[in-house]
Amino acid sequence: MKFKLKKLLHSEHPQHEILAFAMMGIGLILICNDFYFFWPPFAAGFLNDDLVGGLFIAIGIWLFSWAISDKNRIATNRNLLIATAGFLAFEATAEFCHGYVSGHPHMFTAGLLEVIVLLFDFSIIGKSKKHNY
After folding, report:
1. What is the value of pTM for the model shown?
2. Would you tell me the crossing angle of helices 14-32 and 105-127 to the nearest 10 degrees?
3. Which one, 3, 29, 33, 107, has the greatest CB density within 10 A?
4. Do 28 and 54 touch, CB atoms closer than 8 A?
5. 63-97 pLDDT, tens per residue?
């Protein structure tokens, strides 16, 4: 039993799995809160759309499935990590802007945590293979 559990939980890419869970968590927060973003007023409807949170979840699921797969393509890894960095940078910027406009300290905290996850993503990008040698 212990061997089966170890084989099931074993992964060659645990950092990718951690990043995937972070992306899925951010996506769930964005989907569950329909009034999270309020500024700028003309973009609040787009930013609060469940599609934005759904994209975070989709990238997280795709990243997790890449990490546990036996067929790991380098190009797919590169594209997923770049997309993750783009979404995290966008989300952190939105959090800091909202924190500045509203004065709510929890938005600065969320922005700081997303910057930390973004730096973790950059660390994974730096350590990942770049070519098929």
Report:
1. 0.88
2. 150
3. 107
4. no
5. 999 998 888 889 999 999 999 999 999 999 999 99
